[in-house]
Amino acid sequence: MDRFDSAIVFGAGAVGSYLGARLPLPTVLVARPDHVRRINEDGLRIGGQEEAVVRIPAAEDCPELGPHALVLVGVKLGDLESAAAALAPRLLPDTTVVALANGLRPEAILAEALGRPVSRIIVQLGATLDGPGAVSFWGGGLLMGPGEVEDELARLFSQAGLPVRRCEDLAPSSWRKLAMNCVANPLSLLTGGRNRDLVAPELDHVRQAVVDEVARLAATEGVELPPDTAASIDRALGRSDNLTSMLQDGRQGRSTEIEFMNGWVARRAEELGLEAPTNRMLAELVRIWVRNRPEGS
To answer: Rounded distance, CA 133 to CA 297, Å?
Structure first.
């Protein structure tokens, strides 16, 4: 018997909506009211590198779960504990919970809040929420560690046509993802550019400094990032038309994840006696941007 027979995406924004629409299982998207209403009326419209309208049910609250359900948690890092409080009464003993959030170990935060094991998928794809009921997909895939749950998740998403990579240790990839986020998210918010726009010569020293600071912190924590990490991040950004989540959040008047990205790097570096001036500067600039958010954002 298959491990999963249904799925819920709790906190279905751009990434969660797209992944839920691709899952080869009966799936419900749990999202904000305007997104839910439009999806239920017109279907989920997918643009970008794909063009499709997917008929998929959506709800404002988590529905009752059946046996063998898969729950993908797509909320931001700062909302993981409130998501756990909303989900906990619905979870059954055999429910599988998977964290999609950024950060080094969102699964640990969610597992502690729920009091049960949580798996993780490192999302390496670009998606934007274009408006209620509409997302754009800009390419990429998923990264998963070892394990029986991960084996089944990899099978599911590979069956759906999404590239899936596996690795024995997620820690180096988690730190690289953190470095990528610390480069792309604040620079995109401050410049208004897409990912490819950030690989500009004028920003070379900024991107390199951000990655160097994250790499020094990772080394202190026992994880060595490859010497070409900054160059590999540049290559990935240069191929992407995606709008970062921080730019989308900023434009829509939502809180940003800066305190879990550059802000966290700066604070953790200080705790360990390291310097992270570029990450500290970018975090402060984002805070200032948010305090003086342009009208209409």
So the answer is: 19
pLDDT in single tens digits along all 297 residues of the chain:
578 999 999 999 999 999 999 999 999 999 999 999 999 999 999 999 999 999 999 999 999 999 999 999 999 998 999 999 999 999 999 999 999 998 889 999 999 999 999 999 999 999 999 999 999 999 999 999 999 999 999 999 999 999 999 999 999 999 999 999 999 999 999 999 999 999 999 999 999 999 999 999 999 999 999 999 999 999 999 999 889 999 999 998 889 999 999 999 999 999 999 999 999 999 999 999 999 987 655
Q: Give the pTM.
A: 0.89
Q: Where are the domains of the chain?
A: 6-166, 171-291
Q: In this structure, are residues 269 and 217 in contact, taking their beta carbons and an 8 Å threshold?
A: yes
CATH of 171-291, one of 1.10.1040.10, 1.20.1420.30, 3.40.50.150, 3.40.50.300: 1.10.1040.10
Where does residue 79 rank: exposed (0-12), middle (13-18), buried (19+ CB within 10 A)? middle
CA atoms lying within 13 Å on the CB side of residue 126: 25
Q: What is the rounded CA–CA span in Å between residue 125 and residue 144?
A: 13
> What fold, for 6-166?
Rossmann fold (3.40.50)
